[in-house]
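Um, can you check?
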Amino acid sequence: MSARSAWRTVPRLKMARFAEIAMDEVPRLADDILREIRREYPHLPVVLNDSGEPMALVGIRRALEVFVQQVAHTEDRPRYHPEVFQEFGRGEGLHGRSLDSLQAIYRLGVRLAWRRLAEIGQLVEIPPPAMYELAEAGFEYLDGLVDQSVRGYAEAAARQAGERLRLQRKLMELLLVEHRTDPAEAIAERAARVGWTPPERVAVGVLLRPAREAVAPAVGQDVLLDMETEQPRMVVPEPDAAGRPELLRRAMTGWAGAIGPPVPLVDAAKSLRWAEAAVRLMERGLLPGGEVLFCAEHTEALVLLQPEELINDLARRTLAPLAHCGSAHGRRLAETLLAWLETRGGAPEVAARLGVHPQTVRYRLRQIRELWGDEIDNPDRRFELELVLRAQRLRGGISSPPTDGAPGASPDLRGTSPSR
């Protein structure tokens, strides 16, 4: 309030009398306000201070006292920043409630307080313009109290979020340990602390950051997410649930990575292992990049490309007959052999798959039989040949069957020779 305000024109004697009566009324008024608040909000928890007195009553009483003292003895608008109102806000945040009811309680308290202060003002004959100005100051004062509660609420929310993330990371560490010895009760106890219901099956994802400061993907609350590692990880509950893959794809737009196969909760580490393997293949360009892949949709690539040393050794042995055929010719024979193994058909079926003339296929099949002899009729040998040739195709060593009937491009097959 400025020195020119209507309130400041009130004679000092009247102002002192107003403050004296109001201060005497504060204890009873605070009790009345708290009683009315409890009547309107019967479920409001009662929190006691160290002296056994309700903190709400202490806060109301102190707020009233400071307001009356300041309007009577200072030139400025009343300002009050008591820690107790921050504590009220923290309490709402820690108990998961919104600030709506707390602000409604404040408004109720101000309305009751103003009713009594107006009676006192009329009793000591303070002019109406001054009382209007006092009412305006009261609502500004209320705004200040609400600001303090909002600050406390925000602090509590931030602290809770940080604590939940810490507990969530601990839970994920427990879930993703290989050969875990912790009992199921330990998982249930940690899950309960973060409000997570342990599912029967999970899939574990490994993500590649699009940028250092990338915003976390907007996955649901039931998805455990750890953004603190270089490659963020997540645990997806019930990944086979209807619509779950589509929701995850939308939530992770702009991100890349892999989600491991669905497994029982106790085998979460196995799902993580496959997701990490898929990410390594993505980084080498052997699986599509720029998106989040589901390992269950790339089983062949993961099975054939992951044991790289074993597949390379098997390729050196099984494809040895092609070593002296020349690069281009050896590649064509390999493509024909794989088409024959996959179709189990004759020259017309293989020719249709490769997009070449049947007579060309017959010529190549005769050469293949000359190179491998009777071994080509051995079921185990045919299985090994198909295995290594599929792996070579996944790596780009031989071309995939054309989809339009035209011959496909033929990458180099030199990697299949014994010299590699």
Summary: Strands lie at 201-208, 224-226, 233-237, 256-259, 263-264, 292-294. Confidence is low (pLDDT under 50) at residues 403-420.
